Amino acid sequence: MTLLKGSILLGLLVIAFGREVNSRVKPGESRVVGGTEAAEGEIPWQVAIETYDGIHYCGGSIISERYFVSAGHCYDFPPTYFRVVAGSLKIAQPGSLHNVTRIIRHKDFNNFDLQNDISLWEVDPPFLWSDLISPIALPANGTETPTGLMLTTSGWGKTYTDPYPEILQKVDVPVVDVDYCVDVWWDVQDVYPYQICAGDTGKDSCNGDSGGPLYKDGVLYGIVSWGSPSCGEADLPGVYTRVSSFRDWIFEQIGV
Ligand SMILES: *[C@@H]1O[C@H](CO)[C@@H](O)[C@H](O)[C@H]1NC(C)=O
Ligand SMILES: *[C@@H]1O[C@H](CO)[C@@H](O)[C@H](O)[C@H]1NC(C)=O
């Protein structure tokens, strides 16, 4: 397994055993592919992680007044390097801006193959609930996501047609059979039981959507983690951190 840390940081393509894989963080170049614009207040838990000077970096999902959850690999710099936008469809018009005071990354996070790709971010000031800002529920410990279940993922940035759409994009993606997912990714990267595979031809999350939600009916099932660099490829589903596998961990860390 050869995934260079520097490549992950920059979101560049990485060749491993002849196939390409990348984590989905790429400053200034994020996209959901095959999606549509979200409506105001439709995804009120969605946040954008930006650099302190306002370059889009990653996504996240609000789970309490002080915390949102994101991917482990989005934590590449000290908390002061980042700022967080909530309550916005357009990140260029932040509804609510927050500093990051603390980032808790899973101690078994592995930057080489993105095991345990989850982190908790504390913000200041706290989130203030409104029609545009509210938390998403977490699934119970061990909740399964059956193959074919239709989930939604969301994020900002490049789509197939627009390099930098202003408006938050969302796309529905079916959960893919885990054995199939392990098989198609076997020569590139291992897929673990604490991950969810989802996606369809032309419908996928992509670079820069990292850390963002995979959800249904107000419950957060997954966190955007990694996938094919071209995104939406027929036989290469996106890979998400399975939140129900980390339910106890979240509670242990922050009591939520
Ligand atoms: C973030 O922290 C900086 C430096 O302490 C401060 O100037 C700024 O007002 C803070 N932003 C928010 C939204 O609280
Ligand atoms: C959560 O699920 C795991 C795996 O099924 C189990 O081992 C663990 O005991 C569960 N934790 C709680 C608090 O029920």
The outline comes out as globular
The helix fraction, in percent, is under 10%
Give the distinct bound molecules: 2-acetamido-2-deoxy-beta-D-glucopyranose
> Radius of gyration over alpha carbons?
16 Å
- What's the mean pLDDT score? 87
Number of helices: 3
Low-confidence stretches: 1-19, 26-31
Regarding quaternary structure, what we see is: single chain
Number of strands: 17
For the biggest sheet, the summary is: 9 strands, antiparallel
Q: Assign the structural class, choosing from mainly alpha, mainly beta, alpha/beta, alpha+beta, or little secondary structure.
A: mainly beta
Amount of beta strand? 25-35%
Terminal CA distance:
35 Å
H/E element sequence: HEEEEEEEEEEEEHEEEEEH
Topology (elements, then pairings):
Blueprint (H helix, E strand, L loop, with lengths): L4 H6 L3 E3 L2 E5 L8 E2 L2 E2 L8 E6 L4 E7 L4 E4 L11 E5 L9 E10 L13 E6 L25 E6 L13 E6 L3 H8 L9 E4 L5 E2 L7 E4 L2 E9 L10 E5 L4 H8 L2
Antiparallel strand pairs: 1-2, 2-16, 3-14, 4-12, 5-6, 5-8, 6-7, 7-10, 8-9, 9-10, 11-12, 11-15, 13-17, 15-16, 16-17
Bound molecules: 2-acetamido-2-deoxy-beta-D-glucopyranose (NAG) (2 copies).
One 2-acetamido-2-deoxy-beta-D-glucopyranose binds next to β9.
Would you give an account of this structure?
Its main location: secreted. One of its GO terms (cellular component) is extracellular region. One of its GO terms (biological process) is proteolysis. It is found in: Secreted. Helix content is 9%, strand content 34%. The protein is mostly beta strands. A hairpin with a 2-residue loop joins strand 1 and strand 2. The longest helix has 8 residues, at 178-185. The protein is globular. The protein binds 2-acetamido-2-deoxy-beta-D-glucopyranose (2 copies).
